[in-house]
Amino acid sequence: MSNMKSVYGSSKDNYSFKIKLKSTILFIWFVILTIICLLPIYILIINATRGTAEVASGISFIPGSNLAKNIDILFHDVNYNTVYNVAIGYRNSAIITGFSTVFTVFFSALTAYGIHVYDFKLKEISYTIILLVMMVPVQVTSAGFVNFMLKLNLTDTYWPLILPAIAAPAVVYFMRSYMKSSFPLDIVEAARIDGSGEFKTFLTIALPIMKPAIAVQAIFAFIASWNNFYTPSMVLISSKFDQKTLPMMISAVQASDKFVDYGAIYLAIALSILPIVIVYILLSKFIIAGVALGGVKE
Fold this sequence. Notes:
- 77% of the residues lie in helices and 0% in strands.
- The chain contains 15 helices and no strands.
- It is flat.
């Protein structure tokens, strides 16, 4: 009897040791990944506080003392003011990105809901076509897209940068995959029995259930639209200063040989990623809530 207890205790201790070892290895691995992801951002912020000579001398992990000077150069230097204005850049990028993000997540969720809930003859074919469109690179269709916008007289406007966000095949694919695992059709049937309309069911039942998926895709859509330089540079042909997005202004600052104040340039780049950080902080709680919900779901 005592031998059985000792064997049982020994196996239990071995299992406990393996669990602790695995947890420790995973913790160390995730710490390394976190450092790898955050290190470039940290260096960017540090360089925004350093002078040109300090930046040219190499990487440093200690903040400099030139932040006030870099701010003064970036906001008050005549040369910078001709191509960079953070207020105008924020305004233009916020208009385009805000509408694009809302259109992307709402209409993608609506499309995924329709494909998941309803049965119709061309259901799978329609979904296959959506996946095929997802595989076509933007660069392949860019010339035709710009030519089409020219014929519609929509160049030098924000419409070509906002309206195409309604069609986001990759987001539809993600939304449908999420609904297949987390959205039971019995809820829709119960809502119909209670007299709820189809669109009302989508708004009041489907969207709240899809909050974690919407939050994830909203972050991705926001980042993609905010950092988009390729499409605005083609559509905004006249390159009017009042129409430029923040990435276009950053590109102009980096491309010109008149700007040699590296600290000011790093500060401009740091200001451009600030909204992305804010949006992630605001939406991350929904992602964490979704993960927690999935962990206790039976």
